[in-house]
Amino acid sequence: MHAIVEDSLRTTPSCFVPVDTDTTVELGQIMRNSVQVTKAADAISEHIERLILEGVLRPGEKLAAERDLAEKLEVSRPTLRTAISQLADRGLLTTSRSGTRVAQFLAPLMDPLAALLAEKPQVVDDYLEFRTSIEAEATGLAALRATEVDQEAIEKCIQRMKIAHKAEDPAEEANADLALHLCIYEASHNVLFLHIMRAIAELLHRDVFYNREHLYLRKGAREHLLSQHIAIAAAIEAQNPREAKKVAAEHIDFTSRTIAEMRRSNERMEASLHRIGRADFLANSN
Ligand SMILES: [Zn+2]
Questions:
Q1: pTM
Q2: Exposed, middle or buried, 222 (CB in 10 Å: 0-12/13-18/19+)?
Q3: How far apart are the CA of 23 and the centre of ligand 1, in A?
């Protein structure tokens, strides 16, 4: 039974008494109320769904407490509860004792994909090839479409990156790098760029393609990456799509070359280790 109807019945037990004129009127009122509530719940769930689609509400984020949210949306708590339960049924929200969160709705797709891609060297090249074609386009769109909110989010990422850079914290710098690109996909206001790249960013978080922190440990790479990120943010702020595309393409090209170089030096290291024979590991018995 619809939750809101249940609520109405609980508060008006008189609808269970044998039908007479008064009760019929009351039952009719309850039905009208429940239809209104259902309509309101549908409108709220559509609104929340749009916010999830547009990336305003992100997977894993916790929604405000029911009472506060109902107040802000100017609906009753049962209406909000109905809307939340509709979205939970569709796998877009999760509810637990600790509250309501936006579901990690891409996880059922990405978990098996991560397992499939993990530790396959050729996948890195495919990823970088894919990223090369996507990144310039998304950054160009961000330069055309970024709102003030998007600009602020991008600026915050740059500040976070500068702090990590100064602190010589490669893990945090790599995380800020990822966060900046996610902000750019959001600022592109293209929902496919946003959700597909967000899912791929999740794979990057798990180092499925390469170890991002190692990129920031590479000699000379950190400075170069920071200046490229600053140039990307500046082109978006200047609303210059041509420049944004150019600097984004240069950034991915540099990342690709650095990763290729990291891979070559790893291979050289492995080759040298192979050359060390069994005898080198054993104590001289003579
Ligand atoms: Zn980057």
A1: 0.74
A2: middle
A3: 67
Q: How many A from CA of 248 to the centre of ligand 1?
A: 8
Strands (DSSP E) along the chain, which ranges? 93-96, 99-102
Same domain, 244 and 129: yes
Dihedral of alpha carbons 110, 113, 118, 120, sign: negative
Distance 143 CA to ligand 1 centre (A): 16
How remote is the CA of residue 110 from the centroid of ligand 1, in Å?
A: 22
Q: Is residue 281 part of a domain?
A: no
Q: What's residue 11's pLDDT?
A: 37
Domain with 66, as residue range(s), is 3-102
Which of the pair, 281 or 183, is modelled with greater confidence? 183
184 belongs to a structural domain: yes
Q: 75, 102, 129 — which closes off a domain?
A: 102
